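Following the same procedure, backbone shapes were mapped to integers, as reproduced here:
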Amino acid sequence: MTRPLRVAVVGAGPAGIYASDLLMKSEHPVQVDLFEKMPAPFGLIRYGVAPDHPRIKGIIKSLHNVLDKPEVRLLGNITIGEDITVEELRSFYDAIIFSTGAVADRDLNIPGKEMRGHYGAGQFVGFYDGNPYFSRDWDLSAEQVAVVGVGNVGLDISRVLAKTADEMLVTEIPDNVYANLSRSAAREIHIFGRRGPAQAKFTPLELKELDHSPNVEVIVDPEDIDYDAASEEARRASKSVDLVCQTLENYAIREPKGAPHKIFIHFFESPVEILGDEDGNVTGFITERTELDGTGDVRGTGKKNTWPVQAVYRAVGYRSEPVKGVPFDETAHIMPNDGGHILAADGKPLPGLYATGWIKRGPIGLIGNTKSDAKETTEILLQDYATGKLSAPENPAEDAIIELLEARNIEYTTWDGWHQLDAAERAAGAAEGRERKKYVEVAEMLEHSRVEES
């Protein structure tokens, strides 16, 4: 009897889970082992979505359905490239798909970037989402804050900074996050974009939700509502862009709401410098006023504005990090690929190695992009299998990888373990009238994920 195709998928976020699902729907019998660095699955859905967005977290339900299938096996708390090398992994599987995502922050290369109080948005997201590999404490002493970047991540961190701790307590935030937010002094959040409203990367619903809290008022300067010919064309070509512009226009013309916490959205302001005192603490932020050039891009006007802020968050994009033993493009921050295959330095495909998601194309796009991305990669993999381009692994036995993990005393988590952790977090939340309270320490997560052998 022909054995099933064995595939290791590295990264149990949406990209990896969608790829696993598509493999199992193919005409070939497939067994998938889904490796995850965290003790828990779901990647950025668990650790990158703001806790006050349960609507987006509903995606987890569909991901659950995939992991419930007998052909897929979750193996968590394992770092590929460290606990197990990529070469070792290749000895157990016909193919490996890397879907390791992007959680590090891109740099903001302006003078003053070394100042204390300048943060990457991803660092703050990791904190408030209870990522066990990020800080447990956060300095929230700044009353005035600058956020650089007009995308949804910039909206998320601005909203979390502007809301009260008690508003966030109804979510799944851990105790340490609530304690920190309770000490927040933030009263003014200033979001800065280099270009205009039609070039903002917000989604319409996220932008509207920004103003839902009775404690938060969103303010847009009417002078920042400006469009050139290319901007007007962008509005006509995209309903989403037009809705974003309409929402920003409504913020600009409405009467003051009178809420105690303000979020100012500034367009046509390009970052120039972060100011600091003699002790290296952020004291201000300088921008240069820009203007549209007719193409949808902008040019500088030479006019500088100085904003008195005590913290600066850069939300200018995430970047992926390399996996030891796999080629990595240090400029584009992706695994070099041809749409599916990972490429060697000479540009040729590396047999049996594939990429999908943000590690493949960079941190752009929404869930729909992730699905189409996984489809492209898995189709290439399955075509390679069908045409005999994949080499058989040395040890394809299903239990071989488990024997290696146990021989190395690596405490790995499983799908059954996730159900136990999930139940424990829900019980902890229910005790406080919440749906869930997230465990943040790896040791805690492992403790609640242990499955007793029958």
Q: What stands out?
A: The first strand starts at residue 5 and ends at 10.
